[in-house]
Each structure stands twice: as C-alpha cells, then as structure tokens.
Amino acid sequence: MSRNRVLAALSGALLLGSAGVANAQSGSAWYSGDWSLTIGAAGSVSPEYEGAKDYLFRATPMISFGRTGTITRFSSRNDNISFAVYDNETVRVGVAGKFIFRRDDGDSDDLRGLDPVRFGGELGGFVEVYATDWLRIRGEVRHGIRSHKGVVADVSADAFQDVTPTIRISGGPRISFASADYFDAYYGVNSAESAASGLGQYSPGGGVRSAGVGGAVTWKTTDKVTTSLFGEYSRLMGPAKDSTLVRERGSPDQFTVGVSATYRFDFRL
Question: What pLDDT shows up at residue 147?
C-alpha cells in the first residue's frame, strides 16, 4: 500500500473514531455543538527560500477550525491549517494541512538551473497536549502532495503567560524532521541540475531538518480579533545544512520576524 493510501486510511480512521466517541458520549451527531473558525494572515520578513541568505517580505494565510473549548486556547503562527476532531481541556487531535507555493528561479537567482518545486501541499495530522496551564506541546506529521513525496514532522513546545488580561507572551523550542524525498525536492542536486546551475551534485538522505526557537507577543485586541508580533530563529541541520545549495549559496541560519492578525467566527451546529 502506498504512503498516500496509508495516510488517507489513517485520517479516515481518526475521523470515524472521533465521531463514534462523540456519538456514544452525547447521543447526538458528532458535529453538533459550538465551533469556531479563525482566519487571518501573517506578514513577515524571512529568507527568500528555505536555506537562503537573502531576505524578503511575504504574506501567508492563517486558518484554524475546531470546537469551541471551555478554556482559552493557545495558538502559534507555526500551527498549520488544522481541524480538531477530538478536543478536551488537555488534548486536541485532528487533521492538519499546509499549502506549499511554487519555488523556482523567480524567487531567487540562487535557484537557476534547479528543478522547480511545484505548487501543492502537505496533509496529515496533529496532536496538542496542554501539559500544564502554561505549557503546550504540539506535534504534526504531514505527507507531501504534488510538491514533494516526502514526510515532514514538526514538534514544538510553547510556554505562555498572560502579563495583562489582553496581552500574552510566549515562546519555546522547535524541531523538524523530514524524509529523503522531501530533502531531495528542496535540497537535492542531480547531474543535470548541477550542469545547469553550477552547484555540486548532492543526493540527501532523511533526518533532522532544523532546530530553533521562537517567541511572540500577542494582543487580544477585541473578543474576536487577535494581533501579534513574532520572531523565529532556526538552524538548518543534517541533509539541509550539508546541501551544496546551502553551503555554496545560502546559509544554515534562518531568521523570521513579522506581525499577524486573525478574526474568530463562532457558530453552533
């Protein structure tokens, strides 16, 4: 069975399992209850491409959908688009996805001669655990769709503290892993690409992708509007750091700073 089919089967089992739990506990349809949809955008200064040494400004969407909890949830700009199918006061489990935009030599001259990374996405699942009332640990595992054929896993831990009723500070470590297929799409250089780009050939394996730290100051502007100022630092490691693209033209040190704003829609089904 292919990895795409395995992923689809796991996602389906997760949805059906959570639906069964909800039906058994409440005697009603799994989707009944209070829900919220949060949408927004982040504008940031970040590397031209993953592994670049030059920076540019870009905007990215932020979307989250899930049941309305009884406590204030913590969220991070690192969280990808997600849908919680199981949610209580300490654990959330669900489906996570990410859009991937095309990467080619229009993004940077460094990429001339390399095969483009096509527009596509990643689909998988996430688990969040609120270990304490001030610490959230989140893990995501996603499989590439169209852009690459690899698997990516991200793990983060964020401590958060409300310094006023409307202002929260947060931060913590991040680490990311990826399979050889992911690294090949973004960091591999075959013989034809080497001849066209001037980069040395490179055939990566799988392993640790990056490790770093991030933080944010979040302001609950209104009951439904939230804005934040954030910063991130990550160090490329393993197959990413060893790539000829990074060694000859880029940098393993990656910085991001930006602002974001989201709006929450509440509704009942």
Answer: 95
